[in-house]
Write a structure and sequence with these properties.
- By secondary structure, this protein is mostly helical.
- Helix content is 58%, strand content 0%.
- The chain has a domain of 109 residues: Orthogonal Bundle (Endonuclease III, domain 1).
- The radius of gyration is 20 Å and the shape is globular.
- Keywords: DNA damage, DNA repair, Glycosidase, Hydrolase, Iron, Iron-sulfur, Metal-binding.
Length: 254
Amino acid sequence: MSPAPADPPEKAVTDKALTEKALAIHRRLCGVYGCPIPYFHDLDPVSELISSLLSHRTRNADSGRAFKALRARFNDWDSLIAAPTAEVQALISGVTWPELKAPRIQAVLRAVRARAGSLDLGFLREMPVAEARAWLEAIPGVGPKTSAAVLSFSALRMPALPVDSHHHRVAQRTGLIGPKVDVGPSHAILRAQLPADWDAQTLYDNHEILMLHGQRCCFHRNPACGSCAVLDLCPTGQARTEARRPDGAVALHP
């Protein structure tokens, strides 16, 4: 069998440049937001799965309240599966699209129980990350963000990289991913730019600092480019800043 063709030299150079940029952004933003960043909770993986499904396109405060309402109402998640869908929907009414999320959560939990034999996902810890993510994403309604969140945010503490909308926006504006790359496909691209041997905490830090930067500086509308710690690494920010200055000068962050 003939060997697989090597990547063209220009692709290797591009990949190296993006990796160097990704690492530079990581170092810079870690200095701004303070790594290591503490994990925000320590849920079992099935609870994290439910929490992640609730959080889609929803503010953390609202999805957090919905999750607490479910926990207060049901003694265990098997009881949630057996509950009338209308009751589940009423309990999570504060999230976006509760009429879709209530039946989806029940369907996902049924699929987990059918495939695993119970609502215990602890066995994922024994799998390689890629295999664990594939197991989760084989369930309808579970995508890359949810699978990464279950592995990274839960008590499993596995080295998976979630990408939310804020993280994605910063990655696009800094040029780590192209302007047409959606959130789902961005997971594999952004993970490949980071060292393969990074542990769970470091990957979690990477997600958190990019997310925080999107929330606190790189806003969806009117990003604060003038005070951005990675302006010199961001072609979008430089273009915006230059357009606003009559002399065309761009102040680069040291």
